[in-house]
Design goal:
This protein is an alpha/beta fold and 201 residues long. The protein contains five helices and seven strands, in the order E-H-E-H-E-H-E-E-E-H-E-H. Helix 4 links the parallel strand 6 and strand 7. The longest helix is centred in the first third of the chain and has 16 residues. It is globular, with a radius of gyration of 17 Å. The model has no long low-confidence stretch (mean pLDDT 96).
Length: 201
């Protein structure tokens, strides 16, 4: 079984909530599957450039000849995603949405003919059967019952992205209110760790 582990927090591991939770999720799967193969990609330490026609994966219909190293890197990103059985993503909310580093990765995996296609009945996702777990951190509270619900563009966006390519039920572990004091931060982390420990294959 192959697992792809992504992080997109600009904070170091010892102070990042999303990195802490994503690591806990991967640790849980290592415990459950002794022969698990993990591919690690830190999108901040090794960022992808923002999307252009010249750095799209060669499999993309819009790709044009350009920087061949960038095109090869994009092709590898797509290959890693397609080859993974499980994808674990650390995704903090920055300014109400995902980090740009994570958006650059998403731009490499939404590839017509590889992860989705259009037909007479509309779009068809081609990445069905893949399991996606998102470790999401938010500084405040953005649930449907809160005044800030309409400002939440991280979880909703990621659900849309993965649903578009056929992954209609991504599993999302949310730690929120982490900027609302040390007690709330600790409680959010504890609940997220419990959620990670309850995951099963």
């Amino acid at each position: 079984m192959k697992l792809l582990h992504l992080d997109s927090s600009i904070l170091p591991a010892d102070s990042s909530v999303s990195r802490t939770i994503s690591a806990a999720v991967v640790s849980q799967f290592r415990t459950l599957q002794s022969d698990l193969t993990v591919t690690r990609r830190d999108l901040v330490a090794d960022p992808l450039p923002h999307m252009t026609l010249a750095n799209l994966p060669p499999a993309h219909p819009g790709s044009v000849p350009g920087n061949e190293a960038d095109r090869a890197a994009s092709a590898l990103v797509l290959e890693e995603f397609l080859g993974a059985d499980i994808v674990v993503i650390g995704a903090p909310m920055y300014n109400f949405t995902i980090p740009t580093q994570l958006k650059a990765w998403i731009d490499r995996i939404l590839v017509p003919g590889s992860t989705f296609r259009y037909g007479s009945d509309g779009v068809e996702g081609l990445a069905k059967g893949k399991r996606v777990i998102i470790a999401l951190s938010r500084g405040s509270f953005y649930g449907q019952e809160t005044p800030y619900a309409t400002a939440e563009h991280t979880e909703t966006y990621l659900r849309t992205v993965f649903g578009f390519i056929g992954i209609t039920e991504p599993e999302i572990i949310v730690a929120e209110g982490i900027a609302r004091g040390e007690e709330q931060r600790a409680a959010a982390l504890e609940a997220a760790h419990q959620a990670a420990a309850s995951l099963h294959l």
